[in-house]
Amino acid sequence: MTPERGRRGDAAMSHAVAAIREGDTIRSRLAPVGARESVGGLLARNAARYAAHAVYAERRNDAFRAVTWERFAKDVTSFGAFLDAAGVTPGARVAVVSPNRGEMLVAEFATMALGAIYVPIFAGYPADQVQGLLGEVDPAVVIVAGRDQLAGVRATAATSVVVTFDAIEPAAVERLTDATGVRHVTYGHALAARAADPARVAAFLAAAQRVDPDMPALLNFTSGTSGVLKGVVLTHDNILSQQRALSAIWSVTPEDRFLSYLPWHHSFGGIFEKYTALYNGATIHVDDSRGKDFEALKRNWAAVRPTIYFSVPHVYQQLVTHVQARPQDESTIFHDGLRFVFTAAAPLPGTVSAFFETKRVPVLEGWGLTETSPCCTLTDLNEVRSVPGMVGYPIPGVTIRIAPDGEILVRGANVMRGYYENPEATAQALPGDGWFHTGDLGEFVGAGLKLVARKDRVFKMLNAEKVVPTEIENRLVAMNSFIRHVIVAGQGRRFLSALIFPDYLRITEQFGTDLATADRVVKASLRETLVAFNAAHRVKYERIQAFAVISRELSLEAQELTPSMKVRVRNVLVNSGEYLEAVYEPSEVSDCRHLRKVMRLAPDDRRCFAGRDRTIDQCHSCGAFVFDDDPASDVRIQPGA
After folding, report:
1. 125 neighbors 96 (Cβ within 8 angstroms)
2. In a 3-state reduction of DSSP, which class is residue 147?
3. 53: Cβ contacts below 8 Å, ≥ 6 apart
4. Exposure of 125 by Cβ count < 10 A (0-12 exposed, 13-18 middle, 19+ buried)?
5. Which of 88, 203, 528, 615 sits at 20 to 30 Å (Cα–Cα) from 507?
6. CATH architecture of 1-32+225-454
7. What are the pLDDT digits (tens) for 519-578?
8. DSSP code, position 268
9. 496-502 vs 483-489, strand pairing mode
10. Domain 37-44+66-212 class?
11. Does the global pTM surpass 0.85?
């Protein structure tokens, strides 16, 4: 199906009508399309069918240079022969530490074609963390991008060769090889030394097709919002079961163009987006913006004109903000060929989704985990979504159940084999009842799924009332586009508070260098949002009674975000301890002179909420903001603590 002008919902077929609810489970009436196969089978099929078509393209000298399926199969064969000679056998691990680049696709397919396990590791992890993960998986071959990643590599007992995609100065290589005795080879040399002719390519692809689809193919480390990384073992069939399911409801063709920045070490980009393109013969254009350099993203967007785009909500917010500030760029961003966009990892603000809809570009959302390869549910393009937290309907072949305690359970061909050499964690997630226990809480809306929260985020206040903070957080973010992140706290406390992290890119786009206006408008906007939230919230103990606006971004470096940009709440709370103290301590004890002065409390008044009719303001010394219980009270907000 080719892209059409106007409403581009034809990019997918309705599957909401195919969803059925049976007691405490939901599933799709549709069946997956296609036969089970290995990743090597996918390679052989597409190399024959799309020989002259581009698999991927990368920027080289200010232009995208494409690599065809024919060339790709040849490179995979050559690199596979190198890995084989290096001692990579079925079940062995090949680890890659690199930002997204085309050579990673060659390494991945070559590894899987040999029946070995591909292990992508985030290049932004600290050196000691990379070393720890390498020690855990003990790879036969380690592949890194260049000098920066090489500096963090330490060979393990099984490692015989280290490969670098880029040429490296001898001194950097010698530090590794002299200390460990491992051999160093550049990627280019590995290909040239075993250049494949057509006969060798055919023989290699034939052998790759015979790899059992139930063999482990990929070891993906979870993002770890808890901070604990676990290696998820996925088979060839786990990975490709997603595509057989999508073939029943989506129409992706070789004419489609993907602009890909989502990191390939993570399941959203590395499995769902990447294999959606590869399985269907579409072309992946590697976006060197990494999702962080918006100017580079805009340049690449204009050059590629993607027809299907996968991203996290913040990038969509950036696109909308940019078009609102620069209407002349609208025809470039929302061009006629853009069929639909897909979002995951966090809720997409309703204002952003609505903006895309006004431009007749449908927005798809989904839910899943690394352990489910990753997709379990998708929203339907033909259905108007009005339920906050709704994440769609089960994809074909997947059944979802809600346990008595509210936990979402999943069954299907997409469920992982287990956690690598971690039987305790595996037994917890796969306790032998036939279901994968996700750790997420949810509820059914008809035959669809509404996501509520992570089980470990639900907490009790001092009064023993149970709070689901994500529901409050999602609502606040949806209410105000100046808020990028908000964390609701209050476990064991008398009242709830919030840590607000503003969207400074959004503020800068709108106000530029006019800081005075920005300060005034953002203050008023946050004030209105919090007052409106409290006024509309009937459950009194769930109102936000104190908060702090934190004038910094959450960061990967501080371990506050996962590589897929999910928030590690526990780490944020630890790193923001001083703000929480400012929020809570002055309002629960009597020795905060600054807060007393601002709130004009009587000297003997020991509780900040004693005077219900008093004006509440920020303590400029400790950084606390406090609300009166009366939502109509005069609450003045000053961003920055």
Report:
1. no
2. helix
3. 68, 69, 254, 281, 283
4. buried
5. 615
6. 3-Layer(aba) Sandwich (3.40)
7. 788 878 887 898 888 888 878 888 888 878 887 888 888 888 877 777 888 888 888 887
8. I
9. antiparallel
10. alpha beta
11. no
